[in-house]
Write a structure and sequence with these properties.
Order of helices and strands of chain A: HEHHEEHHHH
Strand order of the largest sheet of chain A: 1-3-2
InterPro entries (chains A, B): Tscrpt_reg_PadR_C, Tscrpt_reg_PadR_N, WH-like_DNA-bd_sf, WH_DNA-bd_sf
CATH architecture of the largest domain in chain A: Orthogonal Bundle
Radius of gyration of chain A: 22 Å
Protein name (chains A, B): DNA-binding PadR family transcriptional regulator
Number of domains of chain A: 2
Structural class of chain A: mainly alpha
Helix content of chain A: 55-70%
CATH topology of the largest domain in chain A: Arc Repressor Mutant, subunit A
Oligomer: homodimer
Organism (chains A, B): Streptosporangium saharense
GO molecular function (chains A, B): DNA binding
Keywords (chains A, B): DNA-binding
DNA sequence: CCAAACATGTAACATGTTACATGATTGC
DNA sequence: GCAATCATGTAACATGTTACATGTTTGG
């Protein structure tokens, strides 16, 4: 139930509407905890019912600005200090595929890993410019957000380096068994 | 819908029952694509309806052994070569918390990062012995599985190193603003 | 004989995604 | 006036988790 805490966290930086929060999700939290519009509005409603946020102002177009309550702040702090995040949210489609790379030709396996290396590299290039951007801001979110950004950079480098290593690794595989069907990815439904 | 492909992948190593597959999930795939019993049996049913697997033998206790069909193999290969995994499954509770570390005291933030470093270290120690184990086996799953294992080792090291770096980073934060409430994590509902 | 392991399945619930539906205000 | 943006909400569906429910075989 961490969307709840994401919302409490954002609101603890100051009051905002669902619409505002949504934009923050798209910008700051997109790579860490994405959320859809439906989710945000629904959860805001639940948080209000639970007394963790309250409507602090109303604007045009039915705009409702929410502010976190003391109960909400307490919940946020509790979540933050009650350390141990439910174990890293594992489940990697990328790695799952690796397990079954023996089902395709060595060339295809090679291509797959090469592609993963490229994706890592691309991600690095995509994140790099953000570094400069956040360094010019100084709200609490950006400061700590830049730690998350650094994580993303390191993670992307890991992906790239690991994929390049793995590529070489399968090359020197004690003769490639399993060459029954050299290539059978042609037409499909 | 990758559970489907995980099952096809496992069955392509040889026929197995839901019960067998479940054990494989607990052992090999646990860190990459966990699945529950309910999920496995349900998906096997769907795969059978779709003609991607078929019951190849029946055993005692109602045991049904499934084998992948040619259609299933085609689907698996398609999935493997149709590269680009739906972007890395992001969503990290660990990083989400980092964003809001400004809400707790510097000491608590420090403790949090230190704990993350420890968890990384622990994970390294937990994975290390597996390395030896897989090197003695030689089925396709283990060979490629060891690539995934290496990824896990590198990932854990990343977590540890990053957390240690981040810990130092917040230490030298241009004076800690936000010291309204030094510590308010006491009793709770 | 009885416990452990084998073996399968269903139901209730939580979470997340996509698409639909609606309307008000602002700026040009 | 009209398009873009602001703004909120609901419904249908997919996926995943937990708990319940049941029965068989093997080995000691």
């Amino acid at each position: 139930m961490s969307l709840r805490h994401a919302l409490l966290g954002l609101l603890s930086q100051g009051p905002a509407s669902g619409y505002d929060l949504l934009k923050t999700f798209d910008v700051s939290l997109a790579n860490v905890w994405p959320a859809t519009q439906s989710q945000v509005y629904a959860e805001l409603g639940r948080l209000a019912s639970a007394g963790m946020v309250e409507v602090s102002a109303q604007g045009p177009r039915g705009r409702k600005e929410y502010a976190v309550t003391e109960a909400g702040r307490a919940e946020l702090r509790h979540w933050l200090t009650q350390t141990d995040p439910g174990p890293l949210s594992r489940r990697s489609e990328m790695l799952l595929r690796v397990f079954f790379l023996g089902e395709v030709s060595p060339e295809q396996a090679h291509d797959y890993l090469r592609r993963q290396a490229e994706l890592g590299e691309e991600r690095i290039r995509r994140l790099a410019p953000l570094r400069e951007m956040v360094s010019t801001m100084d709200d609490s979110l950006s400061i700590y957000g830049s730690l998350a950004l650094e994580w993303g950079m390191r993670f992307s480098a890991l992906q790239r380096d690991w994929a390049l290593w793995a590529e070489k690794e399968i090359e020197r595989l004690p003769e490639h068994r399993r060459c029954e069907q050299p290539n059978t990815e042609t037409e499909r439904t």
